[in-house]
Amino acid sequence: MDEIHNCPNKPMLAGSSNIRRGMDSTIRSQLGKEREMSNFTSGKLRCSALLASALLVASSVVPMTSAAYAQDKKPVIRYVFKFSTKWWPPEIDKKIQENAARLGVDYEVVGPENGDIAKQVEMIENYVSDKVDALVVSSLGPATCQAVDDAIAAGVPVVMGDGDCSESTRLGYYGSNNLSLGADAATLFAEAVKDKGHQRVLVVTGTPGAQNLQEREQGFKDKVKDLALDVEFLPTIPCYEDTQKAIDAIESSLRADPSITAVYVTALWPFQASAASLPLMTAKAKEGKLVVVNVDAFPNGLKLVEDGYIYGQVSQNLGQLTAGMVEYANQVALNGVKYPSVCNLANQLITKDGGSGRISAAEFNKKIWTDFDWDTHPVQVTDCQ
Fold first, then answer.
1. Rounded-to-integer distance, Cα 348 and Cα 184, Å
2. Based on CB atoms within 10 Å of each CB, which residue in 22, 185, 338, 368 is the most buried?
3. Domains 76-176+318-344+379-383 and 178-315 share a fold
């Protein structure tokens, strides 16, 4: 190979050391032949021949190298969740990554600090600029939905998970039927207030404008109306997905208005705390003067159910919401598998003692939060409710 480096005006050949190794054998063979050929005694002619051979080898090696790189590259899927923190445990995170490895995709769950919708939009826009292969998005509100439309227009396929943008151009939604989550909570509420007359209900929700939370509230109210319950709803209070703000909303409302007879919370926020953080709520519930129901079932909240402070909870299919999301995105966004535009998952009703069509708080807590026996079966179209 030294001969070619001694040639004047030698070309710069792009590529890895593989190119040089490929050139080596060809050039040495050429040199051997040239020593026997009198018409190549000129150094200038010899260099010309060497360079021609080198370029021929380089042109054949470079495409092979590029093709090999393309074959090794994994499709990139990013799940832009509502928060930077994950609500699921490490045991399930491991299952998610196992699914991603099995599918051969580069998958990561990310999200904005403190549920900041502007930051979520910025993250979506950055991933579009990076030309990721697909996005999963859990909407925080209308601005997120506009970013989803913009991503689709830019050629990045987007599916929604957990929080939908039903009016957007997204490819599909995979997650709970939020109207039915609210309706199931209303069913539990109706059981608890049967024959108790007029009810004054406080609703606590998260971020205003989030479609999934709006639907949980609407589903609750629609079911209450269908059941012809005598209910008066107080103005809904948002907590912006903040545990302490949710606690304050409940406690300050009960303190200011002792006539409140029920509380419905559209997610888990205040019940991530213990009973000691909710003294007025727990005292009134123990006295039989307050009924509490909510969506989502996590350990502290389940303890409140066991102790009689919360009448019942409605859980989503946590395994499919987490480990199933990467499979759904891979099938729909990357491989064009046809699903209904909305693929809803089944709910689970939870009360202190369980019973027909439901599960006890103690049993659910052991299954989900002690044994981590989550439903993580491979996603299929028949899962859609």
1. 9
2. 185
3. yes
Superfamily designation of domain 178-315: Response regulator (3.40.50.2300)
What lies within 8 Å, CB to CB, of 186 at 6+ separation is: 219, 220, 221, 222, 223, 224, 227, 264, 293
Mean pLDDT for 247-263 is 99
Distance of CA 323 to the CA centre of its chain: 9
DSSP 368: I
Q: Give the domain ranges of the chain.
A: 2-72, 76-176+318-344+379-383, 178-315
Comparing CA positions, the residue from 82, 79, 161 lying closest to residue 115 is 82
DSSP 5-39: HTSTT-----S-HHHHHHHHHHHHHHHHHHHT-GG
| 132-147 residues labelled b (16+ CB within 10 A) or e (exposed) | bbbbbbbbbbeebbeb
Per-residue pLDDT band for 353 (boundaries 50, 70, 90) equals very high
Query: How much is the pLDDT for 72?
Result: 62
Scan for tokens 């491991």, then name that residue.
94
Q: How far is C-alpha 273 from the chain's CA centre?
A: 24
What is the model's pLDDT at position 71?
53
What's the DSSP call for residue 207? S
Q: Under a CB-based contact definition with an 8 Å cutoff, are residues 137 and 144 in contact?
A: yes
Least confident of 48-62, 232-246, 312-326: 48-62
Q: Helices in 229-381 by DSSP H: which ranges?
A: 243-256, 279-286, 299-306, 318-329, 361-364
Class of CATH domain 76-176+318-344+379-383: alpha beta
Residue 23 pLDDT > 60, yes or no? no
pLDDT at 245 over 50: yes
Q: Please check the confidence at residue 105 and state whether its pLDDT lies above 80.
A: yes
Burial group, residue 13, by CB count within 10 angstroms (0-12, 13-18, 19+): middle
Mention every residue, 6+ apart, whose C-beta is less than 8 A from residue 170. 137, 148, 152, 158, 159, 160, 164
Whether residue 233 contacts residue 263, with contact meaning beta carbons closer than 8 Å, is answered with no
**What are 7-19's pLDDT values in tens digits?**
444 444 344 444 3
Residue of 123, 140, 141 lying closest to 132 (CA atoms): 123
Position 61 scores a pLDDT of 41
Greater model confidence, 130 or 24: 130
